[in-house]
């Protein structure tokens, strides 16, 4: 099995998307759980069963509950994967020294541009790029252990949804 090389900048640029997707997924799970516990009782609405025959109201609720429970299971797996990525990035970030940590936080977590970050850190561009390179290298080393884990997950489809800002639910 081929193991993908982790591109730390790719993960850092998408950190905010991961956090946003995690919040949206948590909200979606909460909404679906409410629907499972308190299904709508609109008797005029029905699902067509096999052969186009409407199912009974009770059968409709069972079908909806099963669909919602399956969706909750899928979202829970997605949430677990997102949590793993976020905690891995944050864990690698915590290993950096103060200067590197501030640079990564400002540049990637807060999304500021390079010149703004350099001005905030009171350094010239040459020093900025040196600190930036050291920080990325340090974080890459920390995340190296996760390469195999990332390759085992069917991550591309999840990341694609986050990157394309597709609706999760």
Query: What is the H-and-E element order?
Result: HHHHHHHH
Spans of at least 5 consecutive residues with low confidence: 1-5, 43-49, 165-169
User: What would you call the structural class?
Assistant: mainly alpha
Output the radius of gyration: 22 Å
Summed up, the helix count is 8
Strand content: under 5%
- Overall form: elongated
**Count of beta strands:** 0
Cα end-to-end separation: 32 Å
> What is the count of structural domains?
1
Largest pleated sheet: none
What is the overall pLDDT average?
76
Amount of helix = over 70%
Give the helices and strands, then pairings.
Elements: H1 8-13, H2 15-37, H3 57-94, H4 98-109, H5 114-120, H6 125-143, H7 147-152, H8 155-163
Helix pairs in contact: 2-3, 3-6, 4-6
Structure description:
There is one protein chain. It is built from 8 helices and no strands. The protein has helices at residues 8-13, 15-37, 57-94, 98-109, 114-120, 125-143, 147-152, 155-163. The protein is elongated, with a radius of gyration of 22 Å. Helix 3 crosses helix 6 and helix 4 (98-109) crosses helix 6. The chain has one domain (8-42, 53-163). Mean pLDDT is 76; it is low at 1-5, 43-49 and 165-169. The chain starts with 7 loop residues before the first helix and ends in a 6-residue tail after the last helix. With 169 residues, it is an all-alpha fold.
Highlighted features:
mainly alpha; 169 residues
Write a concise synopsis of the structure shown:
This protein has 169 residues and is mainly α. It has helices at 8-13, 15-37, 57-94, 98-109, 114-120, 125-143, 147-152, 155-163.
């Amino acid at each position: 099995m081929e193991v993908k090389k982790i591109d730390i900048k790719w993960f850092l640029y998408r950190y905010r998307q991961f956090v946003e997707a995690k919040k949206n997924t948590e909200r979606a799970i909460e909404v679906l759980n409410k629907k499972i516990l308190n299904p709508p009782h609109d008797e005029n609405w029905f699902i067509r069963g096999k052969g186009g025959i409407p199912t009974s109201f009770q059968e409709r609720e069972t079908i909806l509950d099963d669909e919602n429970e399956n969706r909750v299971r899928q979202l829970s797996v997605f949430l677990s994967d997102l949590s793993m990525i976020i905690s891995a990035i944050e864990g690698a970030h915590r290993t950096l020294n103060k200067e590197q940590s501030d640079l990564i936080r400002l540049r990637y977590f807060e999304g500021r541009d390079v010149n703004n970050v350099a001005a905030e850190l009171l350094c010239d561009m040459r020093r900025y790029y040196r600190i930036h390179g050291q920080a990325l290298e340090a974080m890459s080393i920390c995340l190296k252990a996760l390469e195999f884990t990332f390759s085992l997950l069917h991550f591309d489809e999840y990341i694609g949804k986050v990157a394309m800002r597709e609706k999760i639910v």
